[in-house]
Amino acid sequence: MTPQLNAIGLVTTDLAASLRFYRLLGLDIPDGAESQPHVEAVAGGIRIMWDTVATVESFGGPYTPPTGDARVALAFACADPAEVDAVWSRFADAGHSVTEPFDAPWGQRYATVVDPDGNGVDLFAPLGS
Fold this sequence. Notes:
Helix content is 22%, strand content 34%. It is built from three helices and seven strands; from the N terminus they run βαββαβαβββ. The chain has helices at 15-25, 53-57, 81-93, and strands spanning 7-12, 38-43, 46-52, 73-77, 98-103, 108-114, 120-126. The strands form two sheets. Strands 4-7-6-5 form a four-stranded mixed sheet, covered by helices on one side. Strands 1-3-2 form a three-stranded mixed sheet. A hairpin with a 5-residue loop joins strand 6 and strand 7. The protein is globular.
């Protein structure tokens, strides 16, 4: 068997803030998950998993977060350009770091929001859809 992408893991310094962010995106994250050391939700058929720094450290030593740009970027397809703008607006209104939506030269409406741990979350839809 060829390995298949099944999940993306994120380490978070503030699990409650991270889960609020991804709920705002529309992920179905169970109520009360903030009190767990490990949380999973499915997005587009791929699991996203959150672990606290303490959980990661329990597996063998101190956790050193990555530094610099482009640690990880998640990309979420939207139904159409209007949905890109609407979802982006929810995050802007909630005070998250955002990059204004734009019509990309590769034929998509595109925007980026940043989760509480500094990970980029791209929103996109084909132009003219």
